[in-house]
Amino acid sequence: MSLALAIAAGVAGCGIGDVEMNGKIFDAMGVSPSTMKKAGEARVEARNGLVVPPDTGSLPEPGSGRAPEAEADLAFINDPDRQRNLDRSELARKQAEFCKVAYEDPKARGDNSVDGVSGPAGPCRPSLLTSIKKWNKDDE
Fold first, then answer.
1. How many CB atoms lie within 10 A of CB 34?
2. Over its length of 140 residues, how does the chain's per-residue pLDDT go in tens digits?
3. What is the pTM of this model?
4. Among 8, 94, 114, 121, which residue has the least CB neighbours within 10 Å?
5. Residues forming beta bridges with residue 138, ordered by sequence position
6. How far apart are CA 77 and CA 69, in angstroms?
7. CB under 8 Å, gap of 24 or more: what pairs does 94-101 form?
8. Helix ranges restricted to H, 13-120
9. In sequence order, what are the residues at sequence separation of 6 or more whose Cβ sits closer than 8 angstroms to the Cβ of residue 41?
C-alpha cells in the first residue's frame, strides 16, 4: 500500500509545465519556451465599420442578365482543366508516334543502339515504372 502511494506521489509531481522542450526542432514547431515567450498576444489592427449595402432599387431585375446556358458555354471554352487534359493526350499521342518510328521499328530490326532514345514525354524504352503507370491507368 505504501509503495502505491509513493509511486502516485512521484508521478503526481511530474506536470507538463515542468518539462521544457529545447532545441531547434522544437523552436521550429513553436513549442519551446523561447518561442512561446516571443509569441505573446497577436496584434490585430482596428477594423473598419460596417458597410451598408447599396439601395436595392439600382439592381437589375432578376433574370434580365445572360442565360445560364451561355455562362456554361463560356466556362467550358476557357476551362483550364479541360485544356490540360487535351495537352496530356496530345503529348501522349506525339510520344507514341515518335517512339514507334524512332524506337520500336529499329528495335524490331535488331538495332540495340536505340535504347537511349527519348521522345517528347521521356524515354521510349519501357521500364518497370512506365509499366506500372500504364497498368494503373488501365484500372481507372
1. 10
2. 777 766 765 665 555 556 777 788 888 887 777 776 655 677 888 888 877 777 767 777 777 776 666 666 665 677 778 778 888 888 889 988 998 888 888 888 888 888 888 888 888 888 887 778 777 875 55
3. 0.39
4. 8
5. none
6. 12
7. 94/119, 94/120, 94/121, 95/119, 95/120, 95/121, 95/122, 95/124, 98/124, 99/124
8. 24-29, 33-39, 68-77, 80-99, 105-108
9. none
Place of cell 513553436: 30
Domain range summary for the chain, segments of one domain joined by + = 70-139
Burial of 125 (0-12, 13-18, 19+ CB in 10 A): middle
